[in-house]
Request: fold
Amino acid sequence: MARRKKIYEGKAKILYEGTEPGTIVQYFKDDATAFNAEKKDVIDGKGVLNNRLSEYFMTGLTQIGVPNHFIRRLNMREQLVRNCEIVPLEVIVRNYAAGTMSKRLGIAEGTQLPRPIVEYCYKDDSLGDPLVTEEHIAAFGWASQQDMDDILSLALRVNDFMSGVMLAVGIRLVDFKIEIGRVFDGDYQRLIVADEISPDSCRLWDIETGQKLDKDVFRRDLGNLTDAYSEVARRLGVLPNSNVTKPTLIN
Ligand code: CDP
Reply:
């Protein structure tokens, strides 16, 4: 088989030219990075878990009508996704204070916010993805006002979906980040959820114990990252070769 053309290699994923026009292959690596890649490691099995988990969340979003780039999983580490033009923003939704919001505003980690708060960061590693306002976004032409209305609506729908899915398995969705892609159907452009949704880009805390089940385990040296992600996958029933018994309906 001819070697596939690599389009881009990021910190946690590699993108290859897709097998069909308008598609790309997203390969999930085992590499973990934090603090703008100042901290790095290879975590055995992380890529496999994130490939599965992102498939699970994106498929659920499709089922409730939230457009996203996922087409199908190809194998343990790869999925076929729609090629799109990524809007250069990291869209963060927060339900509880944590991370940079706690630092910036002096709010204790874990404080419930009065309502979900959406923040935008400009996607640029060399600048450390700085927080920006809608004024910057409009003035620099990163997205139009109509795009911003659509992005807000997508972000809040993903938040409601992810909060519910997690709550059902005893996990609190503290915050998460998504990326948005532009796709063109003829002259018509649409915005869709792109990139990945996984414990790399969410904060997930056990509701009972507060145990962290996300990338903070790596950032803050709290234990084994694969164990944490496996626990999320196990609870959702998506762990590969899982021996978890799925609930069955009686009659
Ligand atoms: O994670 P950190 O404390 O650096 O930043 P944050 O603004 O508190 O992150 C909010 C949420 O977005 C967390 O769930 C992060 O994991 C996620 N995030 C991400 O996935 N990628 C980034 N470049 C920044 C944040």
In short: The helical segments are 46-63, 99-105, 134-139, 145-167, 216-219, 225-236. The domain at 85-224 is CATH 3.30.470.20 (D-amino Acid Aminotransferase; Chain A, domain 1). The chain has a mean pLDDT of 95. The chain has six helices and 14 strands.
